[in-house]
Amino acid sequence: MTSVLAVGLAFVTSLLACGLYLRLAHRWQLLDVPNHRSAHSLPTPRGGGIGILLGLFVAMLLPPAMGTPWPAPYPWLALVAGGLALAGIVDDRIGLPVVLRFLLYGLACAGVTWLLLPGTAWWLLGLAAFFCLWLVNLFNFMDGIDGIAAVEAGFALLAAALLSLWLGEGGAYPLFCLLLAAATLAFLHWNWAPARLFMGDAGSIPLGFLLAALSLQGAAAGILPWVCWPILLAVFIGDATYTLAWRALHGEKITEAHSRHLYQRLARHWGSHSRVVQVMLVYNLLWLAPLAAAAAFRPGYAFLWLPLAYLPLLPALLKAGKLP
Fold first, then answer.
1. For the purposes of burial, counting CB atoms within 10 Å of the CB of 203, is it exposed (0-12), middle (13-18) or buried (19 or more)?
2. How many domains does the chain have?
3. DSSP 8-state secondary structure symbol assigned to residue 70
4. Element (H, E) at 286
5. Is 80 in contact with 56 (CB distance < 8 Å)?
6. Which of 24, 92, 224, 247 would you label with 31, given CA atoms 20 to 30 Å apart?
């Protein structure tokens, strides 16, 4: 019963907090003004992702109040995510230098890797930290049209929670996933096309961080095989990685903003944000979710499940270069 109440509290708190932030953002002129790269046409408040974090934080208070304290490392993960959200608010408001942002994200990822994987070989720690850092950044890259980041995060978190429960692993891990999923999906009320509120760096950065941290924690604690997460997030990882590689090979500055991602091209081609998100969700549910389930129960065949997750994306990514 406590878990059900906590999930409901996360959803309601996030919903109300995002609504309150929307009103304040209009009053304080915290607006994302469209430019030639934008997928929206009207000034829209950004930074609404802070409501997602507030929903998570408030809901996390309920289990300890009911006599079930959170084990390590979940309070620490939430604390670091909160710090990243605050940095995101500052970045959304005044803009932080790229080097400073990269340093903050790097320190957070290195710290959580060291916390979750004690005693691990240094080269494996480095790979894990790089994965975290890449997921943090790519989640920010992929938050470019209405609803896409919240749907992707919500799907991955719900799937991870259900898979861990299916494997017989209850407790804090699936509950944390469910709380974050509820808070994120509540944000969709304000962010579904046409969006009235954008997540901004205050939401996309801590979300990417928490997804990466949960992938490491699940593997380290023997709760959920790590390979399940890159399968569940294949659309975001595949699009961001391919686009970055394409830009680097063509001599473009990869630190400059752009609109070359597959999802951006499709949104322009179809003239619809919601259609892109719906197609992504169908792919996630019908292809990636079953593959993640296979990886959860047969992790020894990860060499098969992981490529299968990305294989159908390749034709779409290659064809995207022909779209305006």
1. buried
2. 1
3. P
4. none
5. no
6. 247
pLDDT in tens, the chain (324 residues): 789 999 999 999 999 999 999 999 988 888 877 776 667 667 889 999 999 999 999 999 999 999 999 999 999 999 999 999 999 988 877 878 889 999 999 999 999 999 999 989 999 999 999 999 999 999 999 999 999 999 999 999 999 999 999 999 889 999 999 999 999 999 999 999 999 999 999 999 999 999 999 999 999 999 999 999 999 999 999 999 999 998 888 888 877 778 889 999 999 999 999 999 999 999 999 999 999 999 999 999 999 999 999 999 999 888 877 777
- The answer to whether 11 touches 55, Cβ cutoff 8 Å, is yes
Residue type, 71: P
Phi-psi region of 247 (alpha: psi -120 to 50; beta: other; left: phi over 0): alpha
| Angle CA 7–9–10, to nearest 5 | 65
Range of the domain at 61: 2-320
CB neighbour burial string for 160-185, b if at least 16 within 10 angstroms, e if fewer: bbbbbbebebeebbbbbbbbbbbbbb
Is-above-0.85 flag for pTM? yes
* 44, β-bridge pairs: 32
Beta carbons of 202 and 54 less than 8 angstroms apart: no
Q: Read out DSSP for 288-306?
A: IHHHHHHHHH-GGGHHHHH
Distance from C-alpha of 111 to C-alpha of 311, rounded to nearest angstrom: 33
* Spatial separation of the C-alpha atoms in residues 155 and 69, rounded to whole Å: 26
Radius of gyration of the chain, Cα coordinates, nearest whole angstrom: 19
Residue 168 CB partners (closer than 8 Å, separation 6+)? none
Count of CB atoms within 10 A of residue 248's CB?
Answer: 11
Q: What is the Cα–Cα distance from 29 to 54, expressed in whole angstroms? A: 21
